[in-house]
Each structure stands twice: as C-alpha cells, then as structure tokens.
Amino acid sequence: MILLGVNIDHCATLRQARYREAGGGTPEPDPVALADAAERAGADGITVHLREDRRHIQDRDVWRLRERPSTRLNLEMACTPAMIALALKIMPQAVCVVPENRREVTTEGGLDVVGARDAVKACIDALGAAGIEASLFIGPDEAQIELSAKLGAPVVELHTGAYANAYATDRRPAEFQRLKLGAVRAHGLGLKVNAGHGINYVNIAEVRTLPHLNELNIGHSILSRALFTGIEEAVREMKARMNP
Ligand code: PXP
Prior knowledge:
It is built from eleven helices and eight strands. The protein has 244 residues and is an alpha/beta fold. An eight-stranded parallel β-barrel has the order 1-2-3-4-5-6-7-8, surrounded by eight helices. Helix 6 links the parallel strand 5 and strand 6. The longest helix has 17 residues. The N and C termini lie close together (10 Å). The site of pyridoxine-5'-phosphate has 19 residues, from strand 8 and helix 10.
C-alpha cells in the first residue's frame, strides 16, 4: 500500500491571508483541526513546511501537531543550522529537506545535493543521530540520487513537479520515464522512495504505478478539492485512487 502524507500548508496560507497580525487564539481555518480530520479519513502522515519567512505554517502549528500522539509528522525544512536546531527540539518523526527561495510561491526545484554536499551531509547526520528519518527532496537525476545514498540519507522524495507540468504535453512520457528510472535507481541503492509535488486526482492514475513507492506527499489538489467536498472526502478519494 502506498502511504499518503497530506501537506496542510495551504490551510495555513488561508489563515494567514486574514489573521497575519492577530496574536493569540487559534484563528480559522486551524491547520491542526484539518490534520485531525485528514487523519480520521485515512491520512498516514501530516506534512508541513516551516518556511524561513513563516509565510504559512507557524512554529506554534508545528508544536501543536507534534503534541498529537496520532500524528506522524513530516517536517519540511531548509538545510540551515537554525532549522536543524529547531528540528532537534521539535523531534518530528520525519524531516524532508527542501530547497528554499523566498520569492517562490511554492517549492520549485529539487535540492541540489551535489552543490550543497557538506551542508546536506551535516543535516542528514544531525537528524539521523537524533533518530529522525531524513528525506531529501530531489529531482530524479542520477547524480543527485547517487550522492543522496552515498551521504547516508535513508529516504529520497522524488520531485514530480516537472512531470505534473508536462502532463498535458508531449514531454509527459519522457518525464515519467525519468521518474521511473529514478525510483528504480534509488531503490537499488537502498533508499526508501517517496514522491511529491503537483500530484492530483488525474495524474495519480499514472504516478501510482511508479515502482517502489513508499509514500506520496500531496497538498494543493487535496486542499482544493476539500473546499467543495470537505477534507475527509478529499482524503478518502485520493487514497482510493492511490490504492485501487
Ligand atoms: N513535497 C514537497 C517536498 C513539497 O515541497 C510540496 C509542496 O509544498 C509537496 C510535496 C506538495 O506539493 P503539492 O502542494 O503540489 O501537492
């Protein structure tokens, strides 16, 4: 069975659109209440990206999620000493290391493990020593996958964004093939294979056929559908399409 991590960042985006300046209380919509409902509907994990600029998820959201015994928390974060120190305090079950660029609307490219080798290695080592499973969010590129394994990462999350963007074009078969080869290579090197970004209720029919998939992290499409159906139905429908 492929596991589903529900990324709830956009719930916080909606809250911050109104309540950025409001202190105290828990203004709506509450991402923790959303996580609760998503878990009731079968989400296997909850993913949040605590960005350097705190534009959506706030530290308090992460701490509240961490206090929930039912939640398997996957914290997405940049590879910086400040975020590593914070992760070691929060102690989520998993961390996914992502690149961060203040101007982007959402995470755009994969992490450049080759270019930031020493920083990434320090991050994997610090998290691993604390018993936190570290995952690297990378494009399905041979060099990135090989170095991820060499540096001792237990997990990679393959970036499905280029595939999702090419879905309605003639580049789709090539992008899917890249993901397939990447998944096979990562698995062959002993890495656990997750995937995420741009996965929706249509492309999931093909994404789910990627070999060796452990978990998909999905946010935008599930939260968008939830506006019409409610989060529980949106999560149930995605899980049914992931594991028909
Ligand atoms: N995985 C990672 C590492 C991400 O950064 C994101 C986007 O925040 C996702 C998965 C989810 O992408 P989407 O919102 O397009 O489903």
